[in-house]
From TrEMBL:
This is histidine kinase. Residues 192-244 form the HAMP domain. It is a multi-pass membrane protein. InterPro entries: HAMP_dom, HATPase_C_sf, HATPase_dom, His_kinase_dom, HisK_dim/P_dom, HisK_dim/P_sf, HssS/ArlS-like, Sig_transdc_His_kin-like_C. Keywords: ATP-binding, Cell membrane, Kinase, Membrane, Nucleotide-binding, Phosphoprotein, Transferase, Transmembrane, Transmembrane helix, Two-component regulatory system. GO terms for cellular component: plasma membrane. GO terms for molecular function: ATP binding; phosphorelay sensor kinase activity.
Length: 479
């Protein structure tokens, strides 16, 4: 249930339910008392009784009203006394202030109280006389002598045995009891649906703050509380994930250190070996010395490149490289790139071709130098892992609705299915590459960082022995 609805319902129920119970209980109480007092309180009976009384008042009232003197006649007095006795009624006739006929002696106060009840509704004209409720009817009359008079008719009220006082006390007690019970029930429900789940959440928060995430928060309670539980559970899962990422990050940092040390150690060891060879006189001819020195130089260049790559990768990884975005014409940009790489590749017997499938002039926002580095890294791979006599690299420029897709396809060695998912990971090198070609496994990791820094995507498809396609997707610039 909605928390707001529960509050509205609870507030309403606290009043409505006790009132309803009191109403029903009072009704039952009246019936039970009626049974105890052996009074048939069925609706028909009450109606009959009141009807007889009422009709009597009306009929007799009419008669008395027209010729009030008749009451002074002995015969009529006798007749009326017997009629009134049959329904336990009484009559008092006043001529001026004087009581000229009465079947019951009323005190002055009682008489006064009766005379005050001048209304027509008999049920309201109730007067307590000697501890019993009576219905009273006061009929003003004018005697033939011209004198004013009043005829007072009295009948015991049907519910005499049921004093308002008794009913009031009973209803009061029932109301208080049902109010207390309703409150207890509502508070119990409230506690079950709101307080208990909140308590559980509090306990969960305590556990989380102690770093214990190994539990589940079960949704319970009213809508809002359930939502709160859900958010809490989401938070817990996020924390679990963050912990996991942190752990993985720590592990990968350890891996990074070991890879760096390993990859730097290899050239340093060989540099050391060649330099010792020169110092120890193993290189005993100027030709040999030059050969050793050239090897040392090439190893040093490789190390230098590797350190540059490492520095760039870690700066990209920490988002410390700020890109200098420029609006760039895609076709023109790749034509320029081609011009740069063409000569280099010709030496390796690789033919490069640019295929423009763009439907017109298309622009992208890029840091030209950084994207050039990406293209060079990819093409450098195609060159490095080329195993065909006649190498071929095709660059396709295509477009989708909102992106420009650049495909760099070679006919080289290809990448095995098991290696393909990892080639963009730092330091990842397929075993075949590790054995035969120089490299640190950072080229594609750097490319990925740069492309993602441009809000783009990079991926590869490959078939062993047939070649590799590296795809770059960048957002079109429509401005
Ligand atoms: N065109 C390709 N053909 C075949 N294998 C490739 C190709 N491109 C990448 N690879 C595989 O993916 C691995 C990762 O490539 P990446 O460019 O990141 O590293 P690298 O070339 O080994 O080293 P670096 O680029 O740092 O000199 C390579 O070692 C190689 O196994
Ligand atoms: Mg590479």
């Amino acid at each position: 249930m909605d928390l707001k609805k529960r509050l509205i319902f609870s507030n309403a129920a606290i009043i409505v339910i006790p009132l309803g119970i009191t109403f029903v209980a009072s009704f039952i109480f009246m019936f039970v008392l009626a049974r105890i007092h052996d009074v048939d309180l069925s609706y028909n009976n009450v109606k009959k009784l009141t009807q007889i009384q009422y009709e009597f008042f009306k009929a007799e009232g009419g008669l008395l009203k027209n010729s009030p003197e008749i009451i002074l006649e002995k015969d009529f007095q006798q007749y009326i006394t017997t009629r009134l006795e049959s329904i336990e009624a009484d009559i008092v006739v006043l001529k001026g202030q004087e009581r000229v006929f009465e079947t019951r002696k009323l005190s002055i106060i009682e008489l006064e109280r009766c005379l005050e009840k001048t209304g027509d509704n008999l049920f309201r004209n109730i007067v307590e006389i000697q501890g019993k409720s009576h219905m009273v009817k006061v009929i003003p009359v004018i005697f033939k002598s011209g004198e004013d008079g009043k005829i007072l008719l009295l009948v015991p009220a049907v519910n005499d045995w049921m004093t308002t006082e008794k009913l009031f006390i009973f209803s009061g007690v029932v109301f208080v009891l049902s109010f207390i019970i309703t409150n207890i029930v509502i508070i119990t429900a409230f506690s079950k649906k709101v307080i208990t789940p909140l308590g559980k959440l509090q306990a969960a928060a305590g556990k989380i703050s102690e770093g214990n995430l190994d539990f589940e928060i079960i949704e319970d309670g009213d809508t809002q509380i359930r939502e709160l539980c859900r958010s809490f559970e989401k938070m817990r899962l996020k924390l679990v994930e963050a912990n996991y990422t942190q752990k993985k990050y720590d592990e990968s940092r350890k891996m990074l250190f070991s890879s760096i040390s390993h990859d730097l150690k290899t050239p340093i060891t060989s540099i050391k070996g060649y330099v010792e060879g020169i110092l120890d006189g193993v290189a005993n001819t100027p030709q040999k010395v030059e050969k050793y020195l050239r090897t040392v130089h090439s190893k040093a260049v490789h190390m230098d490149r590797m350190i540059d790559d490492l520095l760039l990768y870690s700066r990209l990884d920490m988002h410390k490289v700020s890109f200098n975005f420029e609006k760039t014409d895609v076709l023109k940009y790749f034509e320029d790139c081609m011009y740069e790489i063409d000569i280099e590749l010709e030496k390796s017997n690789i033919k490069v071709e640019l295929h423009n499938n763009l439907r017109g002039k298309r622009y992208i926002m890029i840091d030209r130098d950084q994207v050039r580095r990406v293209v060079i890294n990819i093409i450098d791979n195609s060159r490095k892992y080329m195993d065909k006599e006649q190498g071929k690299i095709d660059i396709f420029l295509r477009e989708a609705t909102s992106n420009v897709v650049i495909e760099i396809k070679d006919n080289g060695a290809g990448i095995s299915e098991s290696d393909l998912p990892y080639i963009f990971d730092r330091f990842y090198r397929a075993d075949s590459a590790r054995d035969t070609r120089k490299g640190s496994g950072l080229g594609l990791a750097i490319a990925k960082q740069i492309i993602e820094g441009h809000g783009g995507k990079i991926w590869a498809v490959s078939r062993m022995g047939e070649g590799t396609s590296v795809m770059i997707s960048l957002k079109k610039y429509e401005g």
